[in-house]
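User: Continuing from earlier, I have the next pair ready.

Assistant: Great, send them over.

User: Here they are, in order.

Assistant: Folding the first of the pair now:
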Amino acid sequence: MRAGQRPVAGEGDGRSRRAVVLIHGIGEQRPTGTLRGFVDGLGLQPAWSKPDRISDNLELRRMSVYRRGEAPTDLYELYWAHHAPESSPTQVLSWAARLLSRRRVWRGSPVAPLLTLVALLAGLALAAAVTIAVVTTWQGGVRAWLSSPPFWVSLAVALLQPAVRHLLTRRIADAERYLTPDPPNIAARNAIRAEGVELLCRLHDAGIYDQVVVVGHSLGSVIGYDMLRLFWDEARHPTFEKAGPQPEAESFAVDFANPLGLHKGEVEIFQSRQHRLWREQRARGVPWLVTDFITLGSPLTHGPLILDTPDASLTRRQDDLELPVCPPMPSLDPAEVDDDRDAAFYRAVLRKGGQEREALVGNHGALFGPTRWTNLYFPVRMVLGGDPVGGQLAGVFGTGIRDVAVHHSGRLRPWWRRLIPLRAHTAYWAPLDRPARQRPGTAEAVPTLRHLLGLD
């Protein structure tokens, strides 16, 4: 049953509402678990847990936040973990080997220093193993080397095998399945994307929301990007009844025709123009409600590595408007041999009852005309510090993206959690237990995220 055929949260109370859609990352997440942690970590209290009448997943809830003098905010979770089947360790390791075999991993990648360190340690371990084998064979022969391996090596392998297998088949496998468009993975990829597009469709059809914000963490940022670009093609057209002057669209298409043409200091001005364009689009009947896309620890920073295919590079897919950039890429006319491009917003004729009106319509890659893209990341420090999964996106998906380097001020108890690899990757909304503190070059993660959501 579609959302329009049943009661919807807040319907009929006369208040405009905002919707926030949170998309979780890899791992065996539980329904609403990520959403509860998100609400608690950001200190969005009081928040009421209510039935989620938008989704068909009966395990899910929505969290509603009410603040005096402000529009109520409903937070939803796009839960997709149940669509991700288990992979074998061989599949995951083969995928990792294919990525590591690409030259771009070792040259210019944000994780290049970490990979170099891992490769160095692996080389040293291999050299030590060879040395032990040679010395043991020299002293006791081949039989001694084969029958008497060091006890601690055997014990370590026995203890690590279950944990490593679980990590490969139930966690990293999520990324392998979603990011690899091979025939065995197509059904899962389609199911995840279809559910995301349907959620956006229902939020738009509900008739009670005037803004939607999409937040994607880790692999969830890739899923959010996909569902937005797919739904944009369904919700980018103005209506005949509201067609009229579009000065914002006209000037936007001229002023921001180059996706790589913005300087860092111009991004805030650009995002202000994006919001003005969004308001104008809404006034002209464009049903698109999404004002902001927020990514946290996004692997899209490694776009050329994870999105290149044997058929087309990331750059080729961006040129073809298959993968939208920010600012939008102008349309390429296949008939032109000199790569001439039309503006990202083109003139179209709307017809109804024998009448005609002109309107500017964003091309199918103009998603980030009216939608702002803000990316939060923990900078990698001293090789192992920070979040190597995430990073800056402006150099990969367009200079209109606002990259914000963040830090976390809370304490970590117990102390040994500081030694956990990728700890920062899970701390974007970790709760604070002491006052905020300033650090040069970065902003505090939790207050920054609250501000972006309009909940500070």
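And the other member of the pair:
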Amino acid sequence: MNWFERMNDALDYIEDNLSGEIDYSAAAEKAQCSVSNFHRMFAFIVDFPLSEYIRRRRLSHAAMELQKSDIKIIDLALKYGYESPDSFTRAFQKLHGITPSGARKQDVQLKIYPRISFQISIKGDVEMNYRIVDKDQVKIFGKSIAVDIDENPNEILPRFWVEFQEDGTYQRICEAAGALPYKDISLGGAFYDSVDTKSVKYNYMIFTEFEDGMEIPEDMDSISLPAGKWAVFSEEYDDVEECSRKIQSLWKRLMSGWILSSEYEIAKGPQLEAYPLDRKVVEVWIPVKEK
């Protein structure tokens, strides 16, 4: 079973449980990955969190039920996971622009968000530059944040990079590494899970490589990247703004295309972004294994 089929199995589970409790760990198990990795891949491809997708699907179903049945609003609220009619009404009105009671009337405009299905699509021949690299074990250290699975990484992480530059953290990493800022040190970003595989958060670290003899500041973290094969994707950019767009595009394209057509599949372990100091290139590093 390929990656697309596994993701669609996970979405089948979600669709079957829109009117009940959705167990994120059960969905992730069908996708054969951790809870946090499942949410993160979904957000990269679709560009909004899985929780938002579920909210839209549930409120789409709720709108149809209001027009086709005489179900009480309080029962409908409970059916689709809302603790009170008030919270349901606020969410419904935010999405549809009308209250649930108003949605019962004929000739009112409502919204429907169709079910998502993952599949490869041919939109033109946009090439991807990649190479397969065998790499020894490496240690990295840096500043980490915990990202909630309901947050959009395309919004959270650019802000973290700005704060990293402005609050003195970058300077302290350079001092720990014995490097001159913007001259001797290349930075990257590492996505890695917490020890709890059912966690509703994952970690993102802005890092540099760790070498023997370094003293890491107490408020920073370090992890080991296991030896193995890595698929490395690269894109050139002209300025910082374009760099941000390129990294998001790389993630989306490799998750939605390369995985299906490649002879490799994603292996367990941290996934990396790299920003080489000597050239205007952004890279994504994915641990892989042969299918």
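Worth noting for the second one:
Residues 3-104 form a domain with the Arc Repressor Mutant, subunit A fold (CATH 1.10.10.60). The radius of gyration is 22 Å.
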